[in-house]
UniProtKB/TrEMBL annotation:
Name of the protein: Imidazolonepropionase
Subcellular location: Cytoplasm
Record: residues binding Zn(2+): 66, 68, 236, 311
Name of the encoding gene: hutI
Similarity comment: family membership: Belongs to the metallo-dependent hydrolases superfamily. HutI family.
Organism expressing this protein natively: Pseudomonas haemolytica
The keyword Transmembrane appears for this protein: no
Co-factor(s): Zn(2+); Fe(3+)
Reaction catalysis annotation: 4-imidazolone-5-propanoate + H2O = N-formimidoyl-L-glutamate
Molecular-function GO terms, alphabetical: imidazolonepropionase activity; iron ion binding; zinc ion binding
Superkingdom in the source lineage: Bacteria
Length: 401
């Protein structure tokens, strides 16, 4: 079905720039963009539908490329403790932190996990998200990681959003492997990853490279197995300390290295050479009251692509709005609104291995877009959350909620 969308301005985000077309029109056929350009040059055709977008600004659908949307319970109690002076690391050492979410996630049924995650995901969708990445990592054994990944898949079938499922079995050490981190890594490599991949539940493999999680050597063993299975890798790196996980990720041509507050210029050089995207997570930076800023100048200087994501998770970033993250990327990391928007569109798509089909509005790409009733694209990074009037189109179909 050929559809014409007109009376709008478009920030196409091609090559990660606004690349604005004023008084634009777009032709979609089925789920794809067939043509986009100035309205005066729109092809004449027998359109099945013509939509008047009433002067809206159209952008690609937002892409949240790093979330832990599926989890049991929540940790607002720990939030209170931290405000009384207890650190994230201290809470983790006492069996709280990730371990408490692991207990709650293991105790929850698949349907319970689905129901709680669906609410959080709907909140992201109301904010203009059309693609989301969801990680496992609170199950930490085969049955419970499978349960989380199945929920991620089901969310993608039930809601109008494309879901990429990432296996983060190497997120934390499960209690039954206490003091046996190498054995747990071996279990991930020999049992969990091969089984979950064979079941078609895994689009990418992630790990947490940190002194309170897994060492670069342990991460590398996981990466080697991912590579054998033909799965792309990503890494939580340099969030709390500098172990050069981001350079390791680059050596394995990772799609992305994420967090990165403590990365060095050499890490940036390695990432740029490998095309590994830097995913910055201002929600976690803010929520942990981190003071070490990611090295924006080094990232820019070496041409590393920068994505922005919510890191939606119960411990360090209970963030339900990607637009709020855009604002925080600007205010906290001094990114421009254009860089921030590129970070939640084209560069986020690249961080998910979807850069050729998603993330910008160009002929041949998937017709995922949002028509916002705003004055200019910078409004998207300007308002602090809330709801903006808009229409959301996914795969060429209006899915506005
Ligand atoms: N870094 C984070 O910020 C989250 N995971 C990670 O590796 C925190 C997850 C949690 O605290 O539940
Ligand atoms: Fe994370």
């Amino acid at each position: 079905m050929k559809t014409l969308w007109q009376h709008c301005h478009v920030a196409t985000m091609a090559q990660g720039k606004y690349s604005i077309i004023e008084d634009a029109a777009m032709v979609t056929v089925g789920s794809l963009i067939e043509w986009i350009g100035p309205r005066s040059q729109a092809p004449t055709a027998d359109y099945a539908q013509v939509h008047d977008l009433q002067g809206a600004w159209v952008t690609p659908g937002l892409i949240d490329c790093h979330t832990h949307t599926v989890f049991g319970g929540n940790r607002s109690g720990e939030f209170e403790q931290r405000l009384e002076g207890v650190s994230y690391a201290e809470i983790a050492a006492k069996g709280g932190g990730i371990a408490s979410t692991v207990r709650a996630t293991r105790a929850a049924t698949e349907d319970e996990l689905f129901a709680s995650a669906e609410k959080r995901l709907r909140s992201l969708l109301r904010d203009g998200v059309t693609t989301v990445e969801i990680k496992s990592g609170y199950g930490l054994d085969l049955a419970n990681e499978r349960k989380m990944l199945r929920v991620a898949r089901r969310l993608g079938e039930a809601l109008p959003v494309s879901v990429r499922a990432t296996c983060l079995a190497a997120h934390a050490l499960p209690p039954e492997y206490k003091d046996r981190a190498d054995d747990y890594i071996e279990h991930i490599c020999n049992e969990m990853l091969p089984a979950l991949a064979a079941e078609g539940l895994v689009d990418a493999v992630d790990a947490f490279c940190e002194y309170l999680a897994f060492s670069p050597e342990q991460v590398e063993r996981v990466f080697k197995v991912a590579q054998q299975l033909g799965l792309p890798v990503k890494l939580h790196a340099e969030q709390l300390s500098s172990l050069h996980g981001s350079s390791l990720a680059a050596r394995y041509h990772a799609l992305s290295a994420d967090h990165l507050e403590f990365m060095t210029e050499d890490d940036a050089i390695a990432m740029a050479a490998a095309g590994t995207v830097a995913v910055l997570l201002p929600g976690a930076f803010y929520f942990l009251r981190e003071t070490q800023l990611p090295p924006m100048e080094a990232l820019r200087k070496h041409g590393v692509k920068i994505a922005i994501a919510s890191d939606l998770n119960p411990g360090t970033s209970p963030a339900l709005s990607v637009r709020l993250m855009l604002n925080m990327a600007c205010t906290l990391f001094r990114m421009t609104p254009e860089e921030a928007l590129a970070g939640a569109t084209q560069h986020a798509a690249t961080a998910l291995g979807m850069g050729d089909t998603h993330g910008s509005l160009e002929a041949g790409k998937v017709a995922d877009f949002v028509a916002w009733q705003i004055d200019r694209p910078a409004d998207l990074a300007y308002w602090l959350g809330g709801e903006l009037e808009k229409r959301v189109v996914r795969h060429g179909v209006d899915v506005t909620v």
